[in-house]
Design goal:
This protein is α/β, with parallel strands linked by helices and about 550 residues long. It contains 19 helices and 22 strands. Helix content is about 35%, strand content about 20%. The strands form five sheets. Strands 19-15-20-14-13-21-22 form a seven-stranded mixed beta sheet, with helices on both faces. The protein has a five-stranded mixed beta sheet with strand order 3-2-1-4-5, with helices on both faces. The longest helix is centred in the middle third of the chain and has 29 residues, at about 245-275.
């Protein structure tokens, strides 16, 4: 059973390939096109398919379009309602429905040889649910929250033997995601793109507006919620993104963040009351809110919480493919990890460097040489193996630095061109994580939860300790990520710290580095001391001396 999953209608267009229940490949279109988020989430862009990602997925498996048994499209036009009936102010929303109704024609044009009868629509929130509930080995409760789908903004259900039982949904216009997007815009950031900045800014504020806002954003006790956009100007004027931040704007961010956390805990608690399951799986854009996820883990009755690393709309490409496979009687295999994108052999990477006329070495002890650079306070661009699927850098396309120097937070934000209130994250050896961090799940391989930095470690790793004493950690397993694990061990030998700074390998407004050309362009334009390209090492001093 060969199923290509496609997400396109809103934002973060992506493709994923599932063969006989196994996830073979998955990638966002932005990694190929170099357009952040692939496109803007407006109705006029709904027709834009992830053509490059689709073709790559097929080539990765050696397939032609005619070899596919199904193409799963993560939006079902037959489930739509007119925007005005749903209380949405979007006079062009009907274009999304029109494009979705005609998507089989668009897909057969993009993939010559595809039988249009093989195109199968999957409801948007079912695709989100499947990306989580069908990506794990056991039956689970599943919780989805985002901006919107065809007519809803939320789904709560349960997967048993690969089949989804939908227990409840919240219909539009109530939407936690749309409220958070609206706040993002009010705070001077880019809507449907910069919501993570609001979460970061919230740590600098006090939730003094929470009581007044609660009437607009609260759970209703029956597994659903009210979520309506308030008049934000009652609490703080519209912010212009001029580089300043704090005050009432941070307090407003903190207030909404608190209410979102409370709402998620309530929804998860209600869901557990219906299912009694041990495991909760989560997806949808709200599931990228790692602070809220952590409260669900701590305060809900579930023993374990698993969050899809590509919880945003890109993940619906994977979920749609998994759901169509399951509906055909092929039980999906557990998702092996987030490293589902492109990769190159060692020889191919060396060829890229020779073509670019960049001097490089291939050290016998790569981990040791890179650890020396980090210990001497150098910044390292790290490119290794298959690219990550989803928004987190997880040791495949990462920017690394010494966590023991507080000034490295400001330094890396300058390198990337980011706001200074943005934190950077630690990657840590899995077997050492619990001695340094607390109050969160272990292992935590996908940076989807925040942990408390133990007090005795805060002064030792200040660059990765956020203003509220927390860190969004990634635990590193030597079996899954052997090269990063070797680097962490070598760095610990030199410094006593089994932790390094890890942030995504990109600069502001650009997608994460994906191919070797992207890595070389970043290395040439940003103050990075060393580029690691697979087993090869490029030192900035050597490269520029040669130039």
């Amino acid at each position: 059973m060969r199923v290509l999953g496609v997400n396109a209608v809103f934002h973060d267009p992506a493709a994923a390939l599932v063969v006989d229940g196994e996830v073979v490949a998955a990638a966002e279109e932005e990694r190929f096109s170099r357009r952040k988020h692939g496109k803007r989430p407006v109705p006029f862009s709904a027709w834009e398919l992830p053509e490059l990602a689709m073709r790559w997925c097929l080539s990765e498996a050696g397939l032609e379009p005619g070899d596919l048994d199904a193409v799963a499209y993560s939006y079902d036009a037959s489930w739509c309602r007119p925007a005005e009936e749903m209380g949405l102010q979007d006079p062009w929303d009907h274009l999304r429905t029109t494009y979705a109704e005609k998507v089989a024609g668009f897909l057969t044009t993009a993939l010559p040889g595809l039988d249009r009868d093989k195109v199968v629509p999957v409801r948007h929130h079912v695709a989100h649910a499947a990306s989580a509930g069908l990506a794990v080995a056991e039956d689970s409760s599943v919780l989805v929250l985002d901006g919107r789908g065809e007519r809803a903004s939320h789904l709560a259900g349960r997967y048993v033997d690969g089949k989804l039982d939908v227990l409840t949904t919240t219909d539009l216009p109530d939407s936690v995601g749309l409220v958070y997007e609206s706040l993002t815009e009010h705070l001077g950031f880019l809507r449907s793109s910069d919501e993570f900045k609001v979460m970061a800014l919230a740590s600098y504020g006090e939730p003094r507006f929470a009581d007044a806002l609660r009437e607009h954003l609260h759970a209703t006790g029956d597994g659903r919620y009210v979520a309506r956009e308030p008049d934000w100007t009652r609490f703080a004027p519209r912010r212009v993104d001029d580089g300043t931040w704090g005050g009432a704007h941070a307090d407003l961010a903190a207030s909404v963040q608190l209410l979102v956390e409370e709402l998620l805990v309530d929804l998860a608690t209600w869901l557990h009351g219906q299912t009694g399951d041990r495991l909760l799986t989560m997806a949808g854009g709200i599931a990228l809110n790692c602070v809220a996820n952590s409260r669900v883990w701590r305060e809900s009755p579930f023993e374990e919480v698993w969050v899809q690393p590509a919880s945003g709309d890109s993940g619906t490409a994977l979920g749609a493919a998994l759901q169509v496979s399951a509906d055909a009687g092929v039980r999906p295999k557990p998702m092996p990890g987030a490293d589902l994108g492109r990769s190159w052999s060692d020889d191919e990477l060396a060829s890229w460097l020779r073509t670019a006329r960049v001097p490089f070495t291939t050290p016998d002890d790569l981990a040791g040489e890179v650890a020396d650079v980090l210990a001497a306070d150098g910044v390292v661009a790290w490119f290794d193996g298959r690219a990550e699927f989803g928004p987190r850098a997880l040791g495949r396309r990462s920017l690394m630095a010494h966590p023991g120097r507080a000034e490295n937070l400001e330094r890396l934000n300058d390198v990337k061109g980011r706001e200074q209130f943005r934190p950077v994250a630690p990657m840590v050896l899995a077997e050492r994580a619990e001695e340094i961090f607390a109050d969160g799940p272990f292992p935590s391989p996908y940076m989807l939860f925040v942990h408390t930095v133990r007090p005795e470690w805060r002064e030792r790793i200040p660059a990765v300790t956020h203003v509220d004493g927390t860190a969004r950690i990634q635990t590193v397993d030597a079996e899954r990520t052997p090269h990063v694990a070797a680097l962490l061990e070598a760095f610990a030998e030199r410094t006593g710290l089994p932790v390094v700074v890890n942030t995504s390998l990109n600069t502001a407004g650009r997608p994460m580095v994906d191919d070797p050309r992207d890595a070389l362009e970043l290395f040439g334009s940003a103050p990075v001391d060393v580029l690691v390209l697979g087993p090869h090492l490029v030192r900035r001093a050597d490269a520029f001396a040669a130039a």
